[in-house]
Specification:
This protein has three helices and eight strands; from the N terminus they run βαβββαβαβββ. It has two domains: about 80 residues, Ribosome hibernation promotion factor-like (Double Stranded RNA Binding Domain); about 45 residues, SHC Adaptor Protein (2-Layer Sandwich), CATH 3.30.505. Strand 6 and strand 7 form a beta hairpin. The strands form two sheets. A four-stranded mixed sheet has the order 1-2-3-4. A four-stranded mixed sheet has the order 5-6-7-8. It is α/β, with parallel strands linked by helices.
Amino acid sequence: MKIIFKGKHIEVTDAMRNYIEKRLSKIERHFDHILEVIVTLSVEKNRQIVEATLQASRALIRAEEETDDMYASIDKVADKLERQIQKYKEKYFQKPHPGTEKKGLANKGVNAEDSESDKIVKIVKTKRFAVKPMSVEEAAMQMDLLGHNFFVFANDNTNKVNVLYKRKDGNFGLIEPEF
């Protein structure tokens, strides 16, 4: 398992690296499909924040915690990752899955048009990620594991990009854009 360390407003010491590696090695014993973990440590005022993104062969799991002690934040993130992996294993290995052969998506670009609104939009973070083919059920599980209220994925039934989102009433909605 490859671990990438990042520090924001903090230097990641060898002691921190060793502690994180020790905590994550326990997770690796329970789940051997982990490819890479990106751990970001940051300090904002008195908040010690740890964010971990775990890339497994068929899952992306994210956890974030903040306390007033960096090692406590590391412990909480490791515990959260362990719970999420257990949840993933229970859901994923509980039912049979179709073959692993998936159809590729054609590369299609989407151009954003300028809005005539007077409102100024400030983009504070941009993320790029691979859109992977999966079922709606798998997308719902990934969205839950990431703790997000929406998830962009390639629907393996239609071979088109879809957006799954959580509605205010607790149910899910599916957006099927037409290009």
